[in-house]
Protein 1
Amino acid sequence: GQNIDQPTEMTATEGAIVQINCTYQTSGFNGLFWYQQHAGEAPTFLSYNVLDGLEEKGRFSSFLSRSKGYSYLLLKELQMKDSASYLCAVRGYGQNFVFGPGTRLSVLP
Amino acid sequence: DAGVIQSPRHEVTEMGQEVTLRCKPISGHNSLFWYRQTMMRGLELLIYFNNNVPIDDSGMPEDRFSAKMPNASFSTLKIQPSEPRDSAVYFCASSSQGQASGYTFGSGTRLTVV
């Protein structure tokens, strides 16, 4: 079976750092992806991890531990425009992804 | 690159009517996916194609739903007859084999069945 868990909602202050966690149990693993989705828009790709460790891309970083079935997305120097839903997704051995329920992040001034 | 193009952007229809959603993937992408998103169930995979061939349609809710990909540049998702519980945002996405950037999503079709 496939199961991906994320917190439903998080709130943080502009300029702060926030960490969004994702745990997964899937029958196959070929990469973990994070997507950002603003209200009323399509998801857009943020990051990709296939090996354990930290991947950094500007203000965003993503970490993966395959043995623990765990990932997190770290957002630094939060801006108001970072208010969005953040979706964790696992790619199995095929091309299809299983998406988590998403974490709605609100950035307050 | 125009991205993944979906039409229509919005569709309002009466229960029992046929609905056809359309998608044009990114040129050169060989995989195409149809997803449905609702508040209750999040993003759910309905069906995906590799090289125009349906690979996994286990997510298609029932026989009222059907999808086709007659060529590499066009796909349709049809609902007949439509029901109010089909109201959702339907996303099409495409990717190339092993692409590290994952999917590219279209803008979605917001379907409302009244």
Protein 2
Amino acid sequence: DAGVIQSPRHEVTEMGQEVTLRCKPISGHNSLFWYRQTMMRGLELLIYFNNNVPIDDSGMPEDRFSAKMPNASFSTLKIQPSEPRDSAVYFCASSPARGLAGSEQFFGPGTRLTVL
Amino acid sequence: KQEVTQIPAALSVPEGENLVLNCSFTDSAIYNLQWFRQDPGKGLTSLLLIQSSQREQTSGRLNASLDKSSGRSTLYIAASQPGDSATYLCAVKGGSEKLVFGKGTKLTVNP
């Protein structure tokens, strides 16, 4: 299995531009998570999906952030308009089952976003 | 609200030393605890997962323990090697799918 795939790996953009991050979870996994990592705040959960349905988006910082999961093999995280304080590494993770205490989360390599 | 703390924030040891990384959490009502490794500029690699009903898990030179009642976990690394240098993160899963992470311990193993 290729693992969780994220694209792009690096993104540099200017303030005010729209940014779209993409994620392909591990095949067969039905939970998907978006995290953000910064030096100040560490790793924070933004939103997670189960069976393509958003379950908890309480970590999404502002209305500028939105996430979709149109099918079991693809998800996007969009920031519109982007701001310099959005600069961070964004990780996608997937997990094989919902509700099972033992399910591990498997992380992608991350997208390093820089907003100038 | 669950909070996870890892101490120390950074640790430097000579090669061959055995070492212990610490993780504490405020709410003992967890389903599991996961230890991850993160190399610079890379994603997270899962090292060990301990269920709430378990006391420890072992993988190679790594041993993780869990004391749920006291809200503590340790990651023991035996015979450390320069290749073990990385940031080690612990994360706990509570009543939902959410993982709450500590800020990590940056380990440097010197040759």
